[in-house]
Amino acid sequence: MNDTPQPRKLTLYVAGQTPKSIAAIANLKAIVAGPLAGQYEIEVIDLRQNPKLAKEHSIVAIPTLVRELPVPIRKVIGDLSDVEKVLVALKVQGE
Amino acid sequence: MNLDEVAELRRRLAEAEETLRAIRDGDVDALVVEQQNVSQVFDIGGGAEAYHVFMEAMHVGAAAIDGTGRILYANARLTSVLGFTQNSVQGSRFTDIAPEEVAAAVERIMPRAALGVASEEVGFDRLGEQVHYILTATPLRLSTTHGFAITFTDVSERVRAEAAEQSERAAHAVIASANEAVVVCDREGVITHANAAAELSFGGDLLGLPFADAIPLIFPDATGLLQAEDIVRMVVDGASVQGVEAHAPKAPKVKDYLVSAAPLQVGHDMINGCVITMVDLSQRKAAEKQQLLMMRELDHRVKNTLALVLSIASRTLHHEDTLEGFQQAFTGRIHALAATHSLLAENSWTNLTIGDVVRSELAPYTAGAAGRFTIQDLGKSLAPRAAIALGLVIHELATNATKYGSLSVPGGKLSVRGRAEEERFIVEWRESGGPPVTPPTHRGFGQTVITRSLQYTPSGGAEVDFAPEGLVCRISLPLEDLHE
Questions:
Q1: B contact test, residue of A57, A60, A93 with most B CBs within 10 A
Q2: Out of A23, A55, A78, whose CB is closest to B39?
Q3: Is residue A1 a part of any domain in this protein?
Q4: Which of B41, B275, B332, B376 suits A68 as a labelling partner, its CA being 20 to 30 A distant?
Q5: Residues in chain B within 8 Å Cβ distance of A15
Q6: Is the Cβ pair A60, B92 closer than 8 Å?
Q7: What's the predicted TM-score (pTM) here?
């Protein structure tokens, strides 16, 4: 299963154009294009447009990044400016 | 409760703690609140919309950036100033999207702005046009984020006006500093600027006067077809006039000018008038006259010299028996002539003294013979014709002295002295210590040269006394060819 070439999905929950949302989107793009190149694709969900989607991952604070698979689910809260923290949070044991 | 359930509870607890920490630390700026099963998003510290609307209402280019320099929002005015679309700038930095100069200015201004308001002027090229803005950065707090508000105020017009004023001042300075007379006329030919040289040459204040009236010029080479007012009209129509000679009969001092005129164009606009420069030709005219005189004089002298050479050649031929004798005598006489000519040329045919001629002709014999020669009182200047004649006479006397006279033996001496007499000036040539002198049995050409060379005027001439103790020759120089 680990051999699958498909990139995994990272979901970023933002709230329109708040400063932290803008920073989180830009920082995540930089991480995915840099240290994690080719491993992830990004889905940005704007909860201001569609607040109901917050329920799916029980989002409380914005911005929040969610990695659903592989289990266990991982969340990183904030504007993702601390790259090390993001990389540690996304790291899966045995990977 | 099994182990999986415990692990899940632990994960949820950790997540709740992390959420609380993030809210407490200001890592987030919006929260999802669920009321009666409906989710709603609340911004911490007010929404972005409010400040976006406010920024769009501003009359200057404005951007909000976070503490790392990332653009949170840029108003439409700024995006058009910097030439990019609004969608592309959010989340970017100035280094990625703005002209190099602007990005560098933002980098410089941010550390200063952290301590308070900071500003800086920046100029950059926008679609081939140089524009100038003043950047002002002010510290700003947007909800939980610290950042800066940056405004861009357009000062291009002011900078352009300053540059135009400076170039106007420079143009004035250039006109004022020119040595030549320079006047500037408007399209109607009325003088709007005139430098000091122009006012000096044409007497007084020229401003406001029609060019043709203030400076009435006559163009002698144009046979009356060209008038002063025509020049202005031609130039305003786009032609230019280069180096036309003109005469200014009413000018107080200088009469002749070389006139040039060119259209006056300010920026890329139409022709606003014309710039006329007038170069003073009086010195050149005087030099041309002097040159013409000198050429006539030279022509005259060359003819005289050639006649003299012909005469010397035929007379020498007549008196010499052998070809060798002719060659020696003729060459010597031509050299004597050449020596005087060289002296005259070096002194521009003026200011040559009797002593100069005598010393030049005796030069071949005086080397290593110091003490045998005495030259005294020969400081008077003499005219070219007297110099040439005297040169020939001295040459003949010196040749004779080295062949038969005092310069032919080791102990012989020679003195040449000047003495003023009534109506004439005597140069006395006196030899001593040579072999006893006897008068020659026949009169050679040398003697003819000595006695006749200066007889071009009644007071000139020379007489030779063949005294046994040494030859004496009294050369009489005409007073009209002498001056102090």
A1: A60
A2: A55
A3: no
A4: B41
A5: 29-30, 41, 43
A6: no
A7: 0.46
B82-91, B179-188, B280-289: which has the minimum mean pLDDT? B82-91
Cα(B229)–Cα(B10) distance, rounded to whole angstroms? 103
In a domain, A4, yes or no: no
Number of domains in chain A: 1
- Its domain, for residue A27, covers 9-89
Domains of chain B as residue ranges with CATH: 11-154 (3.30.450.20), 179-280 (3.30.450.20), 285-483 (3.30.565.10)
Residue pair A62/A53 in contact (Cβ under 8 Å)? The answer is no
Question: What's A19's domain CATH number?
Answer: 3.40.30.10
Domain assignment of residue A83, yes or no: yes
Residues in chain B with CB shorter than 8 Å from the CB of A71 are: none
* Whether A72 and B90 lie within 8 Å, measured CB to CB: no
Contact (CB<8Å) A26/B92: yes
**Rounded mean pLDDT for each run of 10 residues along chain A, 95 residues in total:** 66 89 90 83 90 86 88 86 86 52
